[in-house]
Amino acid sequence: MRRYKRTLVALALATTVVSGTAGWASGNAQEPVTGPPPGTAAWQREGLPDPAATTPAQVAHFFAALSQDRQQDLVRRHPTVVGNLDGAPVKLRYAANSLTAKANGYDRLAEPGRQILALDPRGRGQVAEVYGDLGEAGHVAVVVPGSDMDARTFDRTNDPYGTPAGMAKSLRDATKGHRTAVIAWAGYTTPVGVGVDAATGDLAEAGAERLARLTDGLDATGAPDPAVFCHSYGSVVCGLAAPRLDAADVVVLGSPGMRADSVDDLRTDARVWAAKDPSDWIDNVPNVEFAGLGHGADPTEPAFGARRVPAGDAEGHTGYFAPGTESLRTFASITVGAL
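User: That's the sequence. What structure does it adopt?
Assistant: Structure tokens below.
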């Protein structure tokens, strides 16, 4: 009877299964951006490697065989392809994405010193930014956000520790003294507000493909296996990506579920961690999955089998990366391999 009641509650809340920083609000259906980057047709007309069929390792090998002049020529003529091509040299991607940002009205992203690792201008815009020297990093982390994050909101100044940029900056600051690079990755189409998109796994499925390719690209360019931090609906993305994710650690925080019943179901060699603070409203969401709605078990429950991250002094749904919290100190220790 109790299980039946929880299922009814889950169905009643199906359009409010939460996923990100917006809280309880109505959501709008989103169409995921998938497939190769814009500009691929012109790129392929020159006989260049098919972005959809070429692995990041093959991309890295292709660029390694080019002269510096040829590399720069491709950046100038095909910036949207080079800038989003996992496995390409990161400095070429930064240069290409600066051009794309200027051409698409993202002037803020084109400011000097910004290291934009990916920028797909389609839809609401998808972006990834690097904090630190990725080429020289001894430790790498990736931050995967929940809903309402796109190219115009991922570094917004209000609620900074609820944005991928704010979380990434805070984590890098907490690992000073180590050669750490942190990637703020808003590289998938996130739900808007709370609605059916947030209650289902469709957007997460599309995001999982992109996230797995990102980690393959890091490996192809010689970066260490990252610690991947997955906030809210981002933990659904990470759960679906887990079997293909080239990562040392997967850390979920404020998670509505990972579409798995246990760590074993994730089929990953990465260490799995979970955090939830006592004031996080995600705790009000039933952890069930029924007819494709809801995201399953609570990763912080002992039966799930994840390592628990202490988060008693974090506040709300977006306080896990706030300076001075035990959760942030633990995240930093995980990133640098001290735990």
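The beta strands are 116-120, 126-131, 139-144, 180-186, 227-231, 249-253, 271-275, 307-308.
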